[in-house]
Amino acid sequence: MHDHDHDHDHARTVKPMVEEITDFEVLEIALRELCIEKGLFTAEDHRHLTEYAENIGPTAAARLVAKAWVDPQFKAAALADPIAACKQVGVDWLEPTGFGTPSDFVAFHILEDTPTVHHVIVCSLCSCYPRPILGNSPEWYRTPNYRRRIVRWPRQVLSEFGLELGEDVEVRVEDSNQKHRFMVMPLRPPGTEGWTEDQLAEIITRDCLIGVALPKAGVTSNVITRTRPANNPITGSGAPS
């Protein structure tokens, strides 16, 4: 085989190093470059905002919930006007960055868990998420697997996260959309009586605020959630290994 033929065959058969770019990535690149070309923002502005967004975490949300646990008046105010309550923990939904970049304003709702009702959030269409107060969504939240299954078999999916709820607890799945964002206010766990807000905030993890976990004394935000393989919804058996 001639070298030319060998090179041609290699180029035709070898697999690419990375997956093909998705339609959404193409759209994002095109829209970003067009906005820069039109002078809506600069490449430096985009870099600044991206770096800012990547550094947002759930700390502010955890502090909001901890404050609500110890202050009944603040809790009532937070449930009635979540946007105003967010400001008290340093999050301004109208201008979350603090350097002149307004957000696309949405209605923000805090979902209060009770002994008989447990909430969990999802965006079944794409990946809507309360980023100004929770930061970027976890990768699993954006997967079709989570999005389609949590609305059909919520108890099964929660059990895969290690969260087993009694039959006397109603599970409500809240579906985010273009203009509505949700965050869960979980129940304060036993064994935390007399704790300070700082101590309480340590056990309110991102997964608790999404609703796939419950806060527990001694379990901090540094713990990696252990999940088990998905069950077959028909047979109840585990996925094949």
From TrEMBL:
Entry's Gene Ontology molecular function annotations: hydrolase activity; transition metal ion binding
InterPro entries given in the database record: CN_Hdrase_a/SCN_Hdrase_g_sf, CN_Hdrtase_a/SCN_Hdrlase_g, CN_Hdrtase_asu/SCN_Hdrlase_gsu, Thiocyan_Hydrolase_gsu
Residues of the Nitrile hydratase alpha/Thiocyanate hydrolase gamma domain: 23-213
Record keywords, A-Z: Hydrolase, Iron, Metal-binding
A Pfam family reported for this protein in Swiss-Prot or TrEMBL: NHase_alpha
Presence of the UniProt keyword Transferase in the record: no
List of residues binding Fe(3+): C123, C126, S127, C128
Similarity comment: Belongs to the nitrile hydratase subunit alpha family.
NCBIfam families in UniProt: thiocyan_alph
Protein name in UniProt: Thiocyanate hydrolase subunit gamma
Organism: Mycolicibacter engbaekii
